[in-house]
Amino acid sequence: MSSNSNSVTTVAVSPRLGVGALRGLPREVTRPPFTPGILETGIVHLGCGAFHRAHQALITQHAMTATGDRRWGIASVAMSRPDVVGALRAQENLYTTVLRDEGAVRAEVVGAITAAVHAPSDRIGVVRRVADPRVRIVTLTVTTGGYCLAPATGRLDSGSDPVRHDLRCAAKPCTAIGMLVGGLAAVRRRGGRPPVVISCDNLTANGRQLRSAVLDFAALRDDRLADWIGRNVQFPCSVVDRIVASGADATAGARLGVDDRAQVSAEPFMTWTIENFDGERPRWDLAGAEYVTDVTAHELAKLRLLNGTHMLLAYLGALAGHPTIAEAAADPALSALARQFMLHEQGPTLALPELQLHRTVTDLLRRFRNPAIRHEMTRVGRNGSDKMHPRVTAAMRENLAKGRPTPAAALLIAAWIRWFDLHGTPGGAIELIDSRAAELAPLAAIPDPHRRARAFLARTDIFGTLPHLNRAQREVGDALAELIHDDIAAVIARRLRPDLGKVA
């Protein structure tokens, strides 16, 4: 005989993070040292992604903590998707940064954001926000594509649809460049002091490239505006460094006892190197940032050692079936190849003393292997066509010219080309996201691996101009053929130096 039960299962629901939830957080969670909502907005940031929230916003909070200066709240702008903006607004612009290093976990609630802005639907408008007299700094993390640069020239791509849109619709621009020029034009009209504009993207000479794009765009509107920007607006270069995980840490949210839809997870390591500039700024130097006369050496070291090796681990690691950078870096063969790549291919192109190079490489391998940071291959490997030259082939070109071997760089390029064959494979870790994917698809369809390698390396807009091109094409073609037919561990083993065949 059956019986009906009227019992109801109760599911505990965590409160949403917000000002009212701060008091109930565990004692070990760091809270903002100020009442959220009292900050003045002194910074506009374009690109409200995870990296910004785990880096610039956190450093800015620490700077305000050190000085008590509350004028540096951030209007953080999402350029396209509204998801993060909605999450932040529902939490009174609070979110948690969780720092993870193997067993150690530290959490801090960040309250530096004064406004979460979705650019396409913003009623105030990003142009007016940039032009606000209280805003002294504009920072950007919009990725390489956000600078609207033509690959062949490195200058503004004036014929692209987004740039043409912004020239037609100056009051409602859709690009970061259009928003900056619109805001700076408004400052000029009122006779105000323009903000300092700081790129935080992984571009070579990022400040100078940003300045060039802004001046090119401004000149298309008004030569006098371009001249005024050129004389009055500072665009210092900067180099940022922190590995930020792809998604939120659900376990951290459970431990905190709150629901945080905007949480970010990152490694403890963090640096920010900025070219010195005139004018007011938060005391970022009291929060871990460093001001220098020239960031070039820092920039090259970071792009080639960290970012270039990230690409190697992503493209080859995914082919080996590893879903994350940490798992790829823990693979003995890949770890040895990564060390060889940094020490013997990327390292010789940098002005680093040998002892410092070895220490940096050891530290990077340790950071890459951090199992607490889930850095997914798709995220690291996306837009490889934009990243290949500054992070890989610029150093490869120098090595080829000086007769130095480049086995890891050739294998890295071959692995990227191989992604075109394998992306979307069921159960695989490979998803190809690239702005040039459609135009490169015919090259990727060439059956012969050596002809395919020649066709890819002929794209100077991606790889630059390589000396001894026949040699480079042959090595990439050989590597591609091996990746198609052989076990990847064997392919890597053939390229390892005998002294680097063990895990670092």
Report on this model:
- The protein has 504 residues and is α/β, with parallel strands linked by helices.
- The chain has 21 helices and 11 strands.
- The protein has helices at 50-54, 56-67, 83-90, 126-131, 161-168, 176-190, 206-221, 223-232, 250-256, 296-319, 325-329, 332-346, 354-368, 377-381, 384-401, 407-422, 437-444, 449-457, 460-463, 469-485, 488-493, and strands at 41-46, 73-78, 95-101, 104-110, 113-118, 137-140, 196-199, 238-241, 264-266, 271-275, 289-292.
- The strands form 3 sheets. The chain has a 5-stranded parallel β-sheet with strand order 5-2-1-6-7. A 3-stranded mixed β-sheet has the order 4-3-9.
- The longest helix is centred in the middle third of the chain and has 24 residues, at 296-319.
- The chain is globular.
- The model is unreliable at 1-5 (pLDDT under 50).
